[in-house]
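User: My collaborator sent over this chain with a note saying "see what the structure looks like." That's all I know about it. Can you take a look?
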Amino acid sequence: SSDLVTLDVNGKPTTGVINPLTTLVQAVVEQSGGTKTAAQAATSVAQALGISAALGGADLLAFDPIKEAATGSGASATAATDIQKVAAKVATVITLAAQSDSSNAAAASASVVSNLASTITNTGSGAPAIDLTSPDVINSALKDVAISAADKAAVVANAVEAATTISSATSVSAISDSQARFLDNIKPGTPVVVIGERVNVDPPVVRIKIETAKTDGSSVVIGDVVRLFESTDGVPLQVGSATVTSADVSRGYVEVTPALAMGEGSHALRAQIVDKAGNASTISASVNTVVDLTAP
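Assistant: Without extra context I'll predict from the sequence alone. Here is the result:
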């Protein structure tokens, strides 16, 4: 995201925009020991990351790509989206590194920013743009991050795949969805199955209560998927599903109808939520109902 703040000639926040790109500008200024102004560092960042043309002469320190993509049109909106792609790729590498070393997340983030700033400083004017889909570039960014070789390899693979996916996005929302797929590792809250002890329709409508009020990342949101299972000998078999809508979020439950008739008799039903990033909730407790289609 972008917040209003910017950097003075020493690279310190004043007013304007703060995002991953201006964070890199500040790092380049600091690494120069004061020999570069914020404006000069911004030029270096834009050139090294290949976004000078997309900026079209605009000031990187005051450019909000999310706002410009939303309010602009045609070529200007496309250019802003391209700049946001680069910002998102940088943010993704930083976040993946922090997640991989959660006990030293701040240090891991700082190392990535510093290493990327060094790469930018060492990229001469006219040189090819830094390729954030390159494993070599990501490996260099992760230098000094205190994680195992296996964890580093996993971060590199995820960062490269994320950057490649972001590259093909055509809107800011698609960029955000791509990031969420790789950065969201919080599973949704466990749902609750609500159904009467006896029902006289088959297949019945099953109400699944969902968590929508928490702010820790576990709340269910539009686009998540609710899965309905029937347990047979303790093994859950999916019998239906539904995608969460805005109406579902507002009322706090989703109604799911099994795809096929379940047949008369007792049935044990359970539910699970899978978010857009692929995180699956704990499967709910089993709730029993009896399908009774026989008149008294």
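A starting point for your reply to your collaborator: The chain has ten helices and ten strands.
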